[in-house]
Amino acid sequence: MNAYLPQPERHAHILFGVLRAHKRVAELPALAEHADTDLLGQVIEEAGRFVGEVVAPLNREGDETGAQWKDGAVTTPRGFREAYQAFWQAGWPSLACAPEDGGQGLPTALEAVLYEMLSAANHGWTMAPGLLHGAYECIRHHGSDALKARYLEKLATGEWLATMCLTEPHAGSDLGLVRTKALPLPDGRFSLSGTKIFISGGEHDLSDNIVHLVLARLPDAPPGPRGLSLFLVPKFEADGSRSAVHCERIEEKMGLHGSPTCVMRFDDAAADIVGEPGKGLNAMFVMMNAARLHVGLQGIGLLDAAWQKANAYAQDRRQMRAPGSSSRAGEADLIALHPAMQRILHTQRAWIDAGRVLAYRTALELDTQKHHPEAARREAAARWCGLVTPVLKAAWTEQAFSGASACLQVFGGHGYVREWGVEQHVRDARVAMIYEGTNEIQAIDLLLRKTLPDGGAALQTLLSELGADLAAVPGAGRARAAIVRTQTFLRDTLLPQATAQGIPPERPFWLADDFLRATALLLMAWAWSRIAAAPGGDAAAEAAFWRWVWPEFDMRMAMMADSLATA
Length: 567
What we know:
alpha+beta, Butyryl-CoA Dehydrogenase, subunit A, domain 2, 7-stranded mixed sheet, 19 helices, Butyryl-Coa Dehydrogenase, subunit A, domain 1
């Protein structure tokens, strides 16, 4: 009951039964040879076996022992290094990387399934490889030929791990305040000096090298975010010498004890520029966008892990007879039969399954954006990813925390003690609402950067596509009506009033969190309409969505209307 148990059949059902992923993959020339449900299903099965047998058993000790710092070196919990070496040598980090870079060229959706399982099984351990694909894409798109030759295959295969060094003690979400300096050197490289904080995996013993991607400012750079450039600093240079980058300490945290969160000091460390000077954020956002999808998957995985424990406990724990129970006398006292417990469990299941539909579809759209032969389909895929990724990141990390807390409630007092393992999920999940752009920043991004500037055109188009998708789906009338209602609200209320002359400039910001939450619920309505139309759906979870989750949509719409009407 204490360890997460991968359930590959559930992932496969969403991927193939609901999303028909094999049909989508068959449309992409670069991936069409992999459009085989047997092959894809076998990869999911093997991923579940590896996660369940190798990674999940390390979770408890990783949390209790934690990473240890001494004299600038970090030792990870017992078994972590061996598990990571087995992980990359078995080819798991390279699933979706290009074959010419040492990857396997498989659909990104498989990587999404893998990292959801890993996050559920052992979030602390999974933090280490979690940035690999983003770092790989960053170097692949923006690195020089020399950098690609040196680093691309090592990152694609996972032989070397990577970090993303953005935050400084005085500069959190406001990257324009970054002070780390980069000075040109005679040999064409740069010398970096500065301190970065909250660096996941900044130092560890899992891999033989660590590739640091660092935002810094050149001497002639203008102030603000447009003056930032991106640099690469390895832990070890090609000649084996150690770079002038030091781990000053690791943080003592609420959760994620197995993952070292480091304070990193760069003392005139030799660095190579990635991309063009002054365009560091352009390069870094490739990495951050990949990370945001992974954080959404963390939310889904952690919620599933908490649900698994609570569901297993509810099926075993006996208390007073459930009201209205028709079960035999020996079974009527299972707490799984109590309406309050059913509401908790079915509601979290509704979030998990809808989240999987949206996350796996986003992964499919990432491949469509890269590989589809038709420009219109690539454009539609980019639109989906741009709008849905911040919703996944924000809504499902929030639900991971609140939902894991609800699952803890199923245990009563037993949930509050370490023995049952569910309290760790509550602690671990909390940080996902903060890193890779806080949830509030995701909401601002969705409304003020991706909806208002184009007059809602992209979102209106996406909603029309969702409505058309449900046109022939039996029982989808409620979701279709909600889509039309949202389109009308956007056109007639939100956009005119949020962009009118003379309104207080802060007013749209007041709406952002409610706007993202309403969008998440609407996407869930679409997802559950698709799940219900596929064979083998979960009727109890579907009913829980419409009964216990969906009414929040009306509340969020009312809150936005009230904010817009306020003088």
